[in-house]
Design goal:
Radius of gyration: 24 Å
Shape: globular
Number of domains: 3
CATH topology of the largest domain: FAD/NAD(P)-binding domain
Bound molecules: flavin-adenine dinucleotide
CATH architecture of the largest domain: 3-Layer(bba) Sandwich
Length: 507
């Protein structure tokens, strides 16, 4: 019998596999594709997920040490001046999804995870003790029994369907978008901004959703080659059997959106090159993230517009939120209800992503009323408080899980602390073990019953908190600012330890 089977070796399935392996569980990953996909999807990671990768030592593997937050970003094709925020919560890591997946693949292999490629999940039933899976592999069909099964099998999740979990939401079919790698003659390049100088429009900034009366135009000069896309209102229905997209379709769409025939040429350099026509947009949220011994992560649990790049911020943090709780359940020390907190914590965050991506889609739609709304919104975006609110929402910095105390850090993503000896919290969290950071030097005794599960980190820090209990997913489960915590605070610490990490050993 397997402990955990994960369907899907996309980014979220692989991340979950790594988290489980760090917590001492060996999951088995089934992936229906025989080879890693070369499909282009995400162009970058946006928000707390960048710091999550740093906390696992994975940022280094993709791009070296983590940099400062971004000075600007966009919301609904409107510029967010992040210099107005304090603190600025929005980190961005501009790496394509296939590189993230390759890195996670490599990490999973190092951690001893078995990934069976060319093995497709086709059937699922569960009883009180286990889940039975039907799988079709290169040698034919076979069966597996597993104590838990996780569907990380994407927006069309077979796991979700087989587990009978509804996927309510809306499928909007009014929009049509074209995206392709392509080049534009040098005379259109604006050297100063990196954007495009287009007759009738001045300079269109790079990576900016440029909105006209008929649609959207985006010029994204990525290091691997520029990506150009448009979005318009669809004037027909999907035929169900459309031919592959051509560069001419993009050229024609640009002319409709910009009123100018931009001479887009085929891309240069090594592929794979993208040519993608997308009709409509799906916004859906699984009715539950858990059904008995079956759980969902990532796109299997939620799909929404890719505007602003929130997908992996949500999905990879789902994986980090689920990994340690599922491992604790399998190790037998999970307190009652721990696994259910995966859904009670993560689903409201997915609801917020659905909300903000729908709000952005409304802001980029054509129409005079929308233009008026954008004018008003533009005025609001000059107010630092508004920019802070939106940046916190997009990054996930506004997430607060249920706190144990009224300390402002409690329930929040643990700040990027640097200890007095120069050690960064991000270096201490690579093992994904829970940590009690004790800068009072007096809390070691309180941890006595949990030393097998929670590590004590003594030291000093210049920050306001004098002690923090940090969960493996990076969130604070208890905090104090007292130099000598009193019995009430100590009791709250013991309660938090028991709530998240189970009974003490000597109890
Ligand atoms: C055009 C586009 C642009 C995007 N841009 C961004 C961006 O800039 N930033 C961002 O953060 N996000 C972006 N996203 C979203 C991001 O790509 C997704 O959120 C992400 O791919 C979800 O990962 P996943 O692991 O949940 O699912 P997937 O990546 O879909 O992986 C699921 C895996 O499961 C496998 N599978 C499916 N069925 C089975 C089965 N029955 N048995 C075994 N295996 C199975 C599939 O082959 C696949 O490998 C974008 C998405 C799109 C479409």
């Amino acid at each position: 019998m397997e402990d955990v089977v994960i369907a899907g070796a996309g980014p979220n399935g692989l991340m979950l596999a790594c988290e489980l392996a760090l917590a001492g569980i060996r999951p088995l990953v089934l992936e229906r594709l025989p080879e890693p996909t070369t499909e282009n999807r995400a162009n970058g990671l946006v928000g707390q997920v960048v710091r999550l990768l740093d906390r696992r030592g994975l940022h280094d593997r993709l791009a070296g040490p983590i940099g400062p937050p971004a000075p600007a970003f966009v919301f609904g094709a409107m510029r967010l001046d992040l210099t107005l925020t304090d603190p600025n919560p929005l980190n961005i890591l501009g790496v394509p999804q296939r590189r993230v997946e390759a890195m996670l693949n490599e990490r999973a292999a190092e951690l001893g995870v078995e990934v069976r490629r060319g093995h497709e999940l086709t059937g699922l039933t569960q009883d009180a003790d286990a889940v039975t899976l039907d799988v079709t592999g290169p040698e034919g069909p076979y069966r597996l029994r597993t104590r838990y099964h996780v569907g990380a099998d994407g927006g069309r999740s077979v796991t979700r369907k087989l587990a009978g979990i509804d996927f309510p939401g809306v499928t909007e079919d009014r929009t049509l978008s074209y995206t392709a790698n392509g080049t534009v003659p040098a005379e259109f390049a604006d050297a100063e901004s990196g954007g495009l100088r287009v007759p009738g429009h001045g300079v269109i900034p790079p990576f900016f959703h440029y909105r006209t009366g008929t649609g959207l135009f985006v010029y994204a000069p990525f290091p691997a080659g520029p990506l150009i896309s448009t979005m318009e209102l669809a004037d027909g229905e999907e035929s169900g059997d459309e031919p592959p997209m051509t560069l001419d379709e993009l050229r024609a769409s640009i002319e409709r959106v910009l009123g100018f025939a931009l001479p887009v040429e085929p891309p240069t350099g090594d592929g794979p090159h993208l040519l993608r026509r997308l009709r409509g947009r799906n916004t859906r949220l699984a009715a539950k993230f858990r059904e008995g011994r079956v759980l969902l992560v990532g796109d299997a649990a939620h799909v929404h517009s890719a505007i602003g790049g929130p997908g992996l911020n949500l999905g990879l943090q789902d994986a980090a939120g689920l990994g340690w709780k599922l491992a604790a359940t399998l190790h037998g020390w999970a307190p009652a209800g721990l696994l259910d907190t995966y859904e009670s914590e993560r689903r409201p965050i997915a609801e917020r992503v659905v909300m903000q991506t729908q709000a952005q889609s409304a802001l980029i739609a054509p129409g005079l009323e929308v233009t008026a709304l954008r004018e008003l919104f533009g005025e609001l975006l000059r107010l630092p408080g508004t920019v802070q609110h939106i940046a916190d929402l997009m990054s996930g910095a506004d997430v607060r899980y249920e706190p144990a105390t009224d300390h402002p850090l409690d329930g929040r993503w643990a700040p990027d602390l640097v200890l007095a000896d120069g050690t960064r919290l991000a270096e201490l969290t690579r093992t994904a073990r829970p940590l009690l950071l004790d800068f009072t030097g007096s809390l070691g005794d309180e941890l006595r019953g949990w030393t097998d599960r929670v590590d004590l980190v003594p030291g000093r820090t210049p920050g306001d908190a004098t002690a923090l209990l940090v969960r493996p997913d990076g969130y604070v489960a208890w905090a104090t600012g007292a130099t000598d915590p009193d019995e009430t605070e100590r009791k709250a610490l013991r309660t938090a330890l028991e709530r998240w990490f189970g009974h003490p050993l000597d109890a």
